[in-house]
Structures are given as structure tokens and as C-alpha cells.
Amino acid sequence: MVKKNKVAVIGQGYVGQTLSVGAAEAGYRVVGFDLNSELISNLINCRSFVPGITEAKLNQIIKKGFFLPTDKPELISDSEVIVIAVPTPIDEARNPDLTSVVRACNSINEYVRNPALVISESTSYPGTLRNLIRPIIDKNTNAGFEYAVAPERVDPGNEKWNLHNTTRVISGLTQSATNKAISFYSNFCQNIYRASSPEVAEAAKLLENSFRQVNIALVNEFSSIIASLDISANEVLEAAASKPFGFMKFLPSIGVGGHCIPVDPEYLTYFARSNGVGSPLIDIANKINFERPTHVIKQIEKYLDFKLNGKKIQVVGIAYKPGVEDIRQSPAIELIHKLRNIGASVSWHDPVVKMWLDEESTPLDPSVDLGLIITPHSEIDLSVWKNSKTTVLNLSATSQNLGWPRIL
Prior knowledge:
Elements: E1 6-10, H1 14-25, E2 29-33, H2 37-44, H3 55-63, E3 67-70, E4 81-84, H4 99-111, E5 117-120, H5 128-138, E6 146-149, E7 168-172, H6 175-185, E8 192-194, H7 198-227, H8 233-240, H9 264-274, H10 280-290, H11 292-304, E9 312-316, H12 331-341, E10 345-349, E11 355-356, E12 359-360, E13 370-373, H13 383-386, E14 392-394
Parallel strand pairs: 1-2, 1-4, 2-3, 4-5, 5-6, 7-8, 9-10, 9-13, 13-14
Antiparallel strand pairs: 6-7, 11-12
Helix pairs in contact: 4-5, 7-9, 7-10, 11-12
């Protein structure tokens, strides 16, 4: 394979690693930069937490010189393409926190002096590329940078949709930047959608996940309504999903987690407020899903006809989705906090996450008063509970029949 231009990917989380490996496999010389020295050390030793990025795959591209993980920012210099793939979380007030984006821009400004194409994959509100990223990088330099956005669409653990077959939305601040970004991504993405402006591309990403937030909130609210009639919400959803048009099936849950659905709609509502526009539908959807763990506790107590105060409870699966170890914004963790706050003794079992704060995953305990299945990883063996008389409820957002009642 002939080595192509040098590419720097700033941020080596789920998004940055996925892009780095994809570009390296396409022949680019990729420098993967991250401030997390432990993460970089793991990558150098061919260990990744990202599903699908195997030791063999990392070993191949690192040994052949196509991928260089590093925590040294000076190594991004002389890159011809620089991709910002850092987290964009929300702060305690649930407002956008672009600290990592600003830090990445400052690093580019400080260490890169040659003309380069800067691409933002980090999710943010419309205008971030034009009004935040470009001014910071262009400050004190005449390097001649060009700018584009290509919002990430990584879904960790998804075996059907990946970097290669998921359409990439791209737009630059200039036609030249757009063309260069499309040329870059076309080497490892099968389908490209050219947006008319970076703001359109940025807004599209927020809409995608706000759509999911609103519809998840709808089915969560619906499940509560229908439960009062002793009707299974899942049966109703199955019936509705038989319609071949005009309906998309979402499943009720204890809330939403991860780096997208709980966060991106907050960026959209922040942008709306900043421009004097209301967003009542998205606001209430955010509220419904954010408060969902509290409501679920009430549903559990009503279904079992006893209070959970003083009960010994074990939660199965604390990651936000099956197959990943990501616990960001995980509603399972929020549920654990709330159960403990009302006086329940709560342990948890998750062989994928293994550690959370100073707590370790505990083996399945058949002696608990109640078992709650939240995230049923394929690695979890539920036979201990199946062979006992343990009271178990399935609260997972999957259609899989695990053999216990679903009350959502």
C-alpha cells in the first residue's frame, strides 16, 4: 500500500479511533493525538476499548507506519489534514462545554505552520466551525488553513452500520475546503452527502439525535399511560410496527445514555435560546428522559406492590448500551444513585464495564430481593437467576425476551 498524505486526528475516543483506523487502512499516515497518556499507551500496545478495533488490526497499521498514537502535540505538525474529534459534553447546568474543542484549536494554532485542511467531526451547534474554530486557529498565524465539517456518525457496537457504509455529511467554509474534505473521506466512506454550508451539516447532526430523543420520550410516556390499563406497551409497539410506512419503532427504557442522545438535543436548545427561539417539544423530551429513572422506580414499586427502601437489589449492565463499556450519561448509573438514595442496598454486575469509580462488578447474586436487567450484554450469563427463585424484572431497551416480565 502506498502511503498517502499525513493526517492528524485530535482525540482518540470512539470517534477518533474509528476514523484513525479507517484512514490508516486507506493508506494515510495517521497521527492519533490524545492528552490521555494511558489511552495512548494502550493503543501503542495494540489495545483498544472500541468494538471492532482489534489487536491484530492495530498491530498491522502501527507496524507498517500507518498509525502513530501519541500524547505529544508537536507531532501533529506538517499534517495536511487535521481532524478534530474531541468530546463535546454538557456542563452541570446542561449547557454546551466546548473546552476540548478550544484546546484542540489552540494546539493546531501553536504547532501547525503549514497550510492544512481542518475538519471538525465534533458535534456542536451551528456556527461552531465558522465562529469558534476558525478564529482560534487563524489567530497569530498565516498558515492558510481551510475548514470543513463532517459530523461523526459512529455507533459503537453496531455490526450493520460502520465508518465505511454510513453516509457522511460534509461541507466547508469554501468550495475548495468542501472538495478537499470530500476527497479525503471518499477514500474510506462509500457515500457522501454534500451540504450547502457547514451550518447545515452541524444542524443535521443535532436534528438526528433530537429526533431520537423526542421519539424515545414519546414511547416512554406512552408506556406509562398504557401501563395504567394493564396493557403491554411492547405488544402495542409490535402491533404499530407492522405498519410498513409512517411509523418507526422505538422502545421504552429507563432513560437515554451515551455521548449523543442525552447531549446533542441540549446543544440544539442552547442554540435556540441564544437566538431567541423556543424549543418546548425538545425541552420536554429532554426532561422526560432525564427524569425517567425516578419514574421507573415508582413503576417497579407499583408492579411489585412493595417499597424498595431496605431491599437488596442487583442491577445487571451499567453501560449505556449492550456491547460497549461506555458509561457516559448512563441511566443505569442514575438509577443506582436514586435507588441508594431511597435506602436500597444496590450492587451491580457488568463484565464489560468491570469497574466504576471505586466499585467492582459483582457476580450475579441469587439471594437478592430484586434483580433488574438494564443492559443485557451478550457476555452476561443469567443462568444463576434462571435456576433460582430470584425476582427479576427486565427493564432493558431491547426486544429480546429474557424470560422475565417487562414492565416498561
